[in-house]
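Schema walk-through. Below, the input block comes first and the output block second. Nothing else is stored per chain. Lengths vary across the set, and this one has 83 residues.
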Amino acid sequence: MNCRLGCGACCIAPSISSPIPGMPQGKPAGVRCIQLDAQNLCKIFGHPGRPKVCGSLQPEQRMCGNNNAAAFDYLNELEKLTS
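--- output ---
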């Protein structure tokens, strides 16, 4: 499965505790990653400075759902359960 272009839910909804270029303390849940461009594409995709957790998060039907809202709902719920 490929990412839904323009979604960005996985770069906004969850917290990331690893340092991100431009966000040395990581990012809290619900905060847009500084590395997302205007089209919600990762500016550091494939770069060595990208956090490992970002690279390990792969799109799948359960997480992404049928639309962006479903992806946000799933990831927000997952964040609540794991925080």
